[in-house]
Amino acid sequence: MGDLTPGLVKSGAAPPAVPTPPQALGSAQAGDAPLALRNDCPQGKQRRIPSFVWALPPIALLGAVFLYPLALVVQQSVRPDTGGTSLQPYADVFASASFRDALGTTVWLAVGATVGCLVLGFVLALVIAFVPFPGGKAVAKFIDVFLSFPSFLITLALLFIYGTKGMANGLWTDATGSGGDGPFQFLTTPWGVLLAEITYFTPFVMRPLLAAFSQLDTAQLEVASSLGARPARIVRKVILPEALPALAAGGSLVLVMCLNEFGIVLFTGAKGVTTLPTLVYGKAMLESDYPAACVVAVVNIAISVGLYGLYRVVSRRAGA
Description:
73% of the residues lie in helices and 0% in strands. With 320 residues, the protein is mainly α.
């Protein structure tokens, strides 16, 4: 008998099917079977839950805890005491000198504190990370503990030192024999608030910097030093480029937190310093002007969200 394949092709008949072994057939059917059948569960008893169902509980919690109160604040900001819905509260608040002064004070305090924290935090992180001294590891661990301190605690510590009846004024009066309260009276001024914010928020810049420095390859520093580079040039050319993402993260965090800081301004006793959070407190609690307080709160939220969006854009481009 000759080869039958040419004849089958010419006549158009299909070649005989090759029988599939029972083992291969069983494995193929088992692989194509649904998950419920492979787990020996009856078909239809186990159904796949849509992915959006798992997102409903956190969305509901976020809406109840955050979005709903925020919506009430926005709603109250467009409802003046005279009734109805109007943008008149926004016009009244924007036209007031107290709002403009509070906005300017908030911005310059936040920017000044951020710059001070970046400079001081970078220098202190350099010393802790690259200058060997006894107790360096303990200082680095203390920074983590410092982050858990409330802001008013740091302000009270500064009051004990530089307050009207503080240690510095007491030492001055004892040394000079002069009466009065002493020369250190700056805590009740904007400079005192700035000092308190820099003191409190500097560790928020140091923590990401120390994490970035711990991942820096020390071989680069050794090579740069062996080539004759001075410490200032090593910091500028080697360390600073590696620290820029950490500086951006820490600086943006400090900026947003300073814009919304309330406890430091309140505990310093700086009556002449009014920021947006303290203005909200004054409008709501002291003047009972809730529409105006909600307008200031909406402006503060808009500034914070805008800065956060800008930070995300800058960090994304820097990462790219």
